[in-house]
Amino acid sequence: xxxxxxxxxxxxxxxVIVIACGLAFVYSGIxxxxxxxxxxxxxxxxxxxxVDRSVQRHAAHIPVPRLDDPDLLRTGFQHYREMCVECHGAxxxxxxxxxxxLNPRPPELVKSAGDWAPKELFWxxxxxxRMTGMPAWGVTHSDEKIWNIVAFLRRLPKLTAAEYRALDRxxxxxxxx
Length: 177
What we know:
Blueprint: H1 2-28, H2 41-59, H3 70-83, H4 85-88, H5 97-100, H6 109-112, H7 118-127, H8 143-155, H9 161-170
Helix pairs in contact: 2-7, 3-8, 7-8
């Protein structure tokens, strides 16, 4: 019985020391939060894995509507051009100044939109991703408008720069809602 008590005291002592060291680290200000300073590899892995798993879990039961309607694609393009291109770029359009200054850098959706299922793109667009600069567009946009964006995102990796420019020329700006 005495032996178990000693192990319990040691376990509590170790936990208290770890918590104290963690608090000392946080309150010391040693860790830079500057957006120009890249995260340490394990921190990057931890954050990316957390985002990926969270999105997969929370989007798992979202029903996906038909996304091949040309009107959805056109409206999705209008929203993408207005709200997304500055940070995510487009075919032949580099990430803008705001996107270049973010840490972590926003994904180039021309390359990575196809890595996500439509329901995951919907969830990310609607709810945003904390501490990445990705806003929660669901606060200002209906689910229908977000599905329009998702429809366009599904097409985005297949567009050439010339096709994107043609869409840009042919598609009027968004009308005020």
